[in-house]
Amino acid sequence: MNFAAIKQIEDEYQIATYKKMGVAVERGRGSWVWTSEGDKYLDLYGGHAVCATGHSHPHVVEAIKQQADKVLFYSNLVYSEIRGRAAKKLASVAPEPLSKVFFCNSGTEANENAMRMARMATGREKIVTFTGGFHGRTADSISATFLGKYREIGKPNVPGHVQAEFGDIDSVRAVADENTAAIMLEPIQSMAGVREADPGFFQELRRLCDDREIVLIFDEVQTGIGRTGSWFFAGSDDAGGVVPDVVSLAKSLGSGIPVGACLVSDQVASHIKENDLGTTFGGGMLAMAATLATLEAIEHDDMIANAARVEQHLRDSLAGRACIVAIHGKGCLIGIEFDRPAVNVHKRLLEKKIITGTSSDPNVLRLLPPLCVTTDEIDLLIDALAE
Ligand SMILES: Cc1ncc(COP(=O)(O)O)c(C=O)c1O
Q1: What is the pLDDT of residues 133-182, one digit of tens each?
Q2: Could you tell me the end-to-end alpha-carbon distance of the chain, in angstroms, rounded to an integer?
Q3: In 3-state terms, what secondary structure has residue 158?
Q4: What are residue 35's DSSP bridge partners?
Q5: Which of 73, 85, 136, 131 is nearest to 108 (CA)?
Q6: Is the dihedral of CA 232, 234, 235, 237 positive or negative?
Q7: Given 236, 256, 282, 294, which residue has the most CB atoms within 10 angstroms?
Q8: Quick one: pLDDT at residue 387?
Q9: Which of the listed residues 135, 190, 217, 281 should we mutate to test ligand 1's pocket, taking the one with most ligand atoms within 8 A of CB?
Q10: How far apart are CA 231 and CA 377, in angstroms?
């Protein structure tokens, strides 16, 4: 089918919930995708922050094929070797004390379960989240999302959600009390325009949570799985070494096969009993094969070190460039702040066959490339921006 025909059937039969780019993607490899018209695009948005291992990484594809030949699915009602190995591998790359895994299917579901575990562990209901944070679109997660119009879309909101100012510990102290089950945050606020906080802020949060016996949750749906130059933002220098009690994950975890997960401390996990949490599809064999292979590929190809290298290269190359006000973010989660609307830059780059992302900050262009993106590929962006 050509692009016009593809567009016509999608527009006719799908509810128009997304403002789409005017391309139909047919295949992908590494940092590149090819369209229905045979055009090749450099994908610096990584398939919507999902394809950390690059598009169709051969090791991941092979693992999925082999698993599909054996059995596609059985739920957590049975044991499974591939599920056990995926959980062990994920726990093995996580900082202590995160040692137990709950698998689900998406980022919003991971956050719903993270908040539920916090309520179960504390016997409290209130959840503190932050202005500018995004946590998903199901009822509890959208109620925790104090960014733009999302809570409005999600009405009626789940009660018990309050907001604090990202990076401002006094604003957290003012709302976190003896009724608070959890403080949850994106440690780098991606959709808000790649907003960062000081390491000291995370240390203060950890102290506050310890003092008031509150569960600390990092929503690492975007920052996790190597994206910021370490396996997790949790425990990194940028987090001041702070490890939360729960980390929620999705996006990169299955290289494109839907997988979500909560990584949980023993302490929090000890409060969760049989039938407290559940999902039919979470932990299915195909998803687990993709998860294990994703983690193996990132490790084998040394992609985490590459993410850090790419960030440095970008920063060096863009330093002092006209029109650029600041570069935000870490590793392969980068926000380029312009002195003008980023949407025009995004459009011009797309004309030059480079896919990037925008954010809710009108002047910030977001890059979420595969962790295997090369500095030569980044140079194509640098040259295009110069033009
Ligand atoms: C930080 C963060 N949390 C949660 C979500 C929700 O994930 P999903 O779309 O898989 O439900 C997203 C999605 O963009 C996200 O960026």
Answers
A1: 999 999 999 999 999 999 999 999 999 999 999 999 999 999 999 999 99
A2: 34
A3: coil
A4: 25
A5: 136
A6: positive
A7: 294
A8: 87
A9: 135
A10: 23
Q: Which helix (H) or strand (E) holds 104?
A: strand 98-104
Question: Tokens 């699915």 correspond to what residue?
Answer: 73
Residue 41 contacts residue 355 (beta carbons within 8 Å):
yes
> Residue 265, SS3?
strand
Low-confidence ranges of the chain (pLDDT < 70): none
Helix, strand or coil for residue 283?
coil
pLDDT tens figures, 253-304: 999 999 999 999 999 999 999 999 999 999 999 999 999 999 999 999 999 9
Q: 105, 137, 143, 222: which to mutate for ligand 1, most atoms within 8 A of CB? A: 222
The CA 147 to ligand 1 mean position distance, Å, reads: 13
* Whole-Å CA distances, 152 to 112, 115, 123, 145, 162: 18, 20, 28, 10, 15
Return the best residue to mutate from 103, 109, 189, 251 for the ligand 1 pocket (most ligand atoms within 8 A of CB). Answer: 251
Task: Write a three-state SS string for 109-131.
Answer: HHHHHHHHHHHHHHCCCEEEEEE
* Pocket residues: Cβ below 6 A from ligand 1: 106-108, 111, 134-136, 186, 190-191, 219, 221-222, 250
- Burial zone of 24 (CB within 10 Å; 0-12 exposed, 13-18 middle, 19+ buried): middle
Question: In one letter, which amino acid is 157?
Answer: N
**Residue 153 burial (10 A CB sphere; 0-12, 13-18, 19+):** exposed
- Stated as kind and residue range, the H or E segment containing 372 is none
Q: Which residue has the tokens 């509890």?
A: 140
